[in-house]
Fold each of these.
Amino acid sequence: MRTPGHATRASSAVVVYVLILVGFQVFLLTVAVEAFATDDEPLAWATAAVSVALAALSAVLLRYLRP
């Protein structure tokens, strides 16, 4: 049986993962915008796709936090 402290630690760990993923997503979005500005379309689309995938993963993890 889980204790309340264990549940708090698990949800805190998920929050940390979400924050790391969002930070990485912002970085990738910046790279994608810069690649579009310099006409490097393959890099721009690849980083944009990874950024969208990270957004979906963050949404799933945040949904896990809600009861």
Amino acid sequence: MSKQKDSEDLVRVGPETVMGELMRQYWIPAAMSSELGRDGAPMRLMLLGEKLIAFRDSSGRVGVMDHRCPHRCASLFLGRNEENGIRCVYHGWKYDTEGNCVDMPNAPPHQDFKDKVRAKAYKVAERNGLVWVYMGARKKAPPLPAIEASMMPEADLQISLVQRECNWLQALEGDIDTSHFGFLHTGSVQPEDVPEDRLMRWTVTNRAPEYHVTDTNYGTMYCRGRSTASTRARGSRWTIPTRCSSASAGATRRHRCAR
């Protein structure tokens, strides 16, 4: 039986939390590249409990930073994305994609101190249509994750976004739990209604799969099998902090990345 403290450590991902600090050691998928146009309107982001904005500057660089201007905490979501920076609408202070203050128009030249001001910004990388953000404290970010799907030619990928109103742990449980498929998704489907060459046939023929779990040197692995006329197996892998992939024999592999 887990304790309340264990549960809180698992589900809370904000700054200075146990799981939050762990997840911040990895790159987080944040947005689709197509969502950010050059000099376009900034986009709101919520990553690991932090309210952020994302924008693409005039040169095509992507910035992800705290939505609050460090001057008076006005939201930079309301700012103007112009000439390689995001400009706060309150006093006109402007920041580049790395969070450096590059203009302080409300201060006379002899009182300008923009070189001492910096917005909280995170490291950003793009690959094959996805924007990734590193929110950790390391000066040098780790390499981008070598996820097979994200390294394929962009023309061979289909990227979609789904909003789940739940905690990350609930999403993980749903992704790796495959026994619910025969009830939640196909509970009203009868075996005789499904062609024999469809994988769903095995789900609705035997709704009580057997699970086999083993420990490995990189974590835990499980396989789910259904004993029918022929044995069908399905495996799921979850890689910290956000990736789940699943595949069945003869099925297309699916990768899910959560933010």
Amino acid sequence: MKNHTNSQPEDMHLSDERGVLSWEQALQPARRGAVDWESIHISLEVIRNGSFRAAAEHLGTSINVLRRRVDELERSLGIKLLTRHVDGVRVTSEGEKIFEAAKKMEVAAYELIQAGEQTNVHLSGEVRLAVTEGLGTFWISPWLVEFQRANPNLLVDVHCAMKSADVLRMEADVAIQITRPTVPDLRMVKLGRLHFMFFAAPSYIETFGHPKTAADLVNHRIVLQSDDNQQWRELYDRLFPGIPASHLVALRTNVSSAHYWSIVKGGGIGILPTYAQWIGAPLVPLDLDVKEYVDIWMTYHPDAKNIPRVSRLIDWVIQAFSPEKFPWFRDEFIHPLKLMDHYSSDSLMSMPPNFGHRRP
């Protein structure tokens, strides 16, 4: 952590006359009241990301929420921790001491969790995971074998549906969805981003030819997925203004799995995630300068993290969508034919057994 202020003596105590406690005393609940660890964690994330905006994006929450938590922490401790500037935030000398201690607490907390997991490896009970149908079928299900083998006494109830589950009403312990949650009481984490482009099967191209531009699509057979996502209706209207679906669409389905197999079997040209080739399909990506994306979100009840078996599932879901491991979940678009260049051998070895029989 960079120090942006003048250095201070190691044992920094401010005068008692001013009524300001030393940094060591500030962290002592007996003198200052219970310290809000969540606010300290949030402050650490703001520092690590360099700004409130970047931290809000990383944590999946609003800038105002982060600012309020940091302000409350500063008032609680009676110390100015951060200063805000046009190019981001800077840590005060008092804040440096606080955050160095906080990082040690963070490490200790992680070690405590790890120790608890080692003594409680036989978690039992049921965990309920709700996920959109496409991600549930083509991504989560293959990975669940790994999770189940690591937690053999857990019953994993997976509910795949086109609509998001209501975790506040306990319809699921954890939900994975492609629409950003709007309920303020939920905990949410941005897992990654799905990038989409047009694909076709080799058999389709052999029969009907290869479109060179998006304008050529009017002379082809189109496969659509019909759901409640306004994004896809707007894309159709943008690409084919004034053309009724009945004049252009060869096949329309209501779920991702049927849509996927319609394209794989040569039913027509359609939009798929860029990782489509990595799940075993001999598909051809079409460079028509048409790219779309949706963000992937995980939500759970605020109290769910306190339940060990649910906490285990939450941690596993985050790893299963790791953009570092799996480049197709990164924010930036990577062409399907170049994904291998961004895919490490270690990540390749971590793919689920028999996850796909063909890769680019």
